[in-house]
Amino acid sequence: MTFWYLTAMGPLADYQRRIVDDDLDELLGDLPAIALEGPKGVGKTRTALQRANTVHRLDDPDELAIAEADPARLLEGERPILIDEWQRLPQTWDLVRRAVDDGAPPGSFLLTGSALPDPPPTHSGAGRIVTLRMRPLAMSERLQTATVSLGELLSGDHGPVIGTTDLALAGYTEEILASGLPGLRSLSERARRLQLDGYLDRVVDRDIPDDAGVIIRSPAALRRWMAAYAAASSTTATFEKLRDAASAGHEHKPSKNASHAYRDALARVWMLDEVPAWIPSNNRLRELGQAPKHQLADPALAAQLLGAQASTLLTGQSSGPSIARDGTLLGALFESLATQSVQVYAARCEAKVGHLRTARGRHEVDLIVERADGGVVAMEVKLARSVAGDAKHLTWLEQKLGDRVLDRVILTTGPEAYRRQDGIAVVPLALLGP
Hints:
The protein folds into 2 domains: 19-133, Rossmann fold; 139-433, no CATH class. Helix content is 36%, strand content 14%. The chain contains 15 helices and 13 strands. It has helices spanning 19-27, 44-49, 61-69, 91-101, 139-143, 150-155, 169-178, 189-212, 219-231, 239-246, 256-268, 299-305, 310-314, 329-348, 392-401; strands at 33-37, 54-57, 81-84, 109-113, 130-133, 148-149, 352-357, 364-370, 376-381, 405-412, 418-419, 425-428, 432-433. The strands form 3 sheets. It has a 6-stranded mixed sheet with strand order 7-8-9-10-12-11, with helices on both faces. A 5-stranded parallel sheet has the order 2-3-4-1-5, with helices on both faces. Helix 7 crosses helix 12 (299-305), helix 8 crosses helix 12 (299-305) and helix 12 packs antiparallel against helix 14. The radius of gyration is 22 Å and the shape is globular. The two termini are 41 Å apart.
């Protein structure tokens, strides 16, 4: 073995198993190449290292220089071969894709990427490289307390919903601020805030220029755009409102092209995790809104950008750019936390997540989890312990779609999971899992 190969000597002793590990265990026996993509710090490399026998680290300048001189060496070594931060050498994607075309066996390649390079690879990799999105830790990964399965809710069996939790509002607030980035969770509050601030600075100063290949002419303006997206968490704020918030106090607003460039740059490094509008096939619903619901990759990043702490969130205070929202900032960030978790669980269930809002805002369902056959679980997210009578939008959707609505759920901060007399499942977020 030369210095070029770093062989993983079995699983890391302190590794925390993730939900995506089940996907990898299932798929590596059938697929020759899998890409794990997501923002920096979510654990992509550590997860891939549990399986890799050969590792090429392209974020190491020396290894990158060798790969640039002889890219074919990336395909050499005992398999599975992990190519870490592949976007540093974008031709890696096409190199692996051609190896798959040439008959690479299952379990040959793992790629991890923290950005989408600009320009992208010449081939999408469709049919050759399967991409899995990796997000920050979901609540069930953090707490290991889940008693209610999203997969069972998607079955439509309306089985019993049970479980209790001691986690209350203050605990959920701490989970918002603690971050789902594994490396930050053991830090003190002050150290965590400093690390989050450094993380955001690196996104602007290093990750976007180095990984996505995008030149940022005004780092301060990009930071303001991140803060505007943070303030817009769990809303469908328009482009114009985001631009106004990002340029408040400045004489000149950025052009539309410049503004879109900021958004695209953030999307390329997976800082944005927008929830698309759900438009059902064979649509029986009229005047549905098309706008996505804004979310950052981790609600802790949104809180840091807005200068929010537990004391300000719990007393209903807001700071940062002004974006109209229904309810408090804590409510918006709790929905962000719930959304992040549901997206992780839905991916395991091979389901998609969207949101529903009629064009005039008369009806709104926070999360729609859709199976491949069109059946849905409709979810409302409530920053409350008690939700008596608070389900009119879920009832409206079931009346419109009938049996297509497999189940209705209200996610809460309460202590107990149960079914109401009207069949709606009330589930504390701490008790929901895949």
